[in-house]
Design a protein that fits this description.
The chain has 10 helices and 5 strands, in the order H-E-E-E-E-E-H-H-H-H-H-H-H-H-H. It is of the alpha+beta class. The chain has 2 domains: 40-131; 177-378, Multidrug efflux transporter AcrB transmembrane fold (Up-down Bundle), CATH 1.20.1640. It has a 5-stranded antiparallel beta sheet with strand order 3-2-1-4-5, with no helix packed on it. The longest helix is centred in the middle third of the chain and has 46 residues, at 130-175.
Amino acid sequence: MDTKRKKLINALAVFLCAALLAAAVILANRAKPAENNPYYTIRYELVRVTKVIAENYTVDENTEHALRGSQSLNVRVLTGPHKGDEMPIMNYLGPLHEKLAKVGTVLTVTLTSDSREAGYQMSVVNYDLVPLIAAMLALFVLAVVLIGRKKGVMSLIGLAATLIAIVFVLIPLWLRGWPAIPLTLGVCVFVAVFSFLLLGGLTKKTAAAMLGTVLCLVISGAFALICGSIARVSGNTMSEAEWLMDEAQATGVTLNVRGLFVSGILIASLGAVMDVAMSIASAVNEIAEVDPSLGAGRLFKSGMNIGRDMIGTMTNTLILAFAGSSLNLMIIMFAAGMQPYQLINNDDTVMELIKAIAGSLGLVLAVPLTAAAASRLMGKKKA
């Protein structure tokens, strides 16, 4: 196949994926989820402090110099339908809410209103962190583009597509009652295919990486589902489950809360599995190009040798990522003096262990599965 035709096919494949994503976004957001209360609304707006009326707070030496007390502020609303309004507001300070303000500080607030009553109530939520987040994103994008060049730009496009697929497709469709696990698996497969197409085009290398990734996700999801069923843990035992079930009852939509446990594992492990799958597929492809006479068996052995060196560090990476996300939970359990059997038999501990092991299992299996797919696709065919 000539280069021009190959580029045309790659461009067409990317265009079809982008069109599919756009269609999915339109489908998912065609109708908004039913509102819990049509009269009661909460809006998040920005306000600027125009005057510090009074301050009454102290520095608590016993809680790492946390501020305790309150501020009485006068603020002007900067956004939304109430833009320009000025009113006094109390800013309560504590270890969990150290949002000390001064004249000129921009804050995020909630405006709570009931359409059956006049006026609204205002509460301080946080500082306006949009400038900070924009600066961090700009620095990240700049580093990726300068170091990665064209590949970096493609990876950023893939990242944007991933976020769009999760935020504007997966979540809205789940809120409309779609089953969580099949929906998440479909989104993950799309993300993997689209990302690999952007980075490597439609080649044997990317096809092997796609196949390895999809197989690993299915195995990880099945492992987590089976272990969760045996241990009687699922999305219903997560800390947020009660709120989600109440929301489902209020809106009249049947939400698949139980499947969110496995869905979270699939999303959390997707990036690492894609990384390993592409690394193995690239390595096998390079070996096949250097020595086209090698058969599938020899290529598979080379891919496995390379993959074994990656397994240790990558497994540590995923395990530590899950351990970091549950660090506060582990500290609380140890501080409470839980016995080893009590700690292990705790639902939260079991869920974190299933997450870590299921994700790591998918990571380990990405090596042989991708090596097998790549060697079959790239190895010299026997006469």
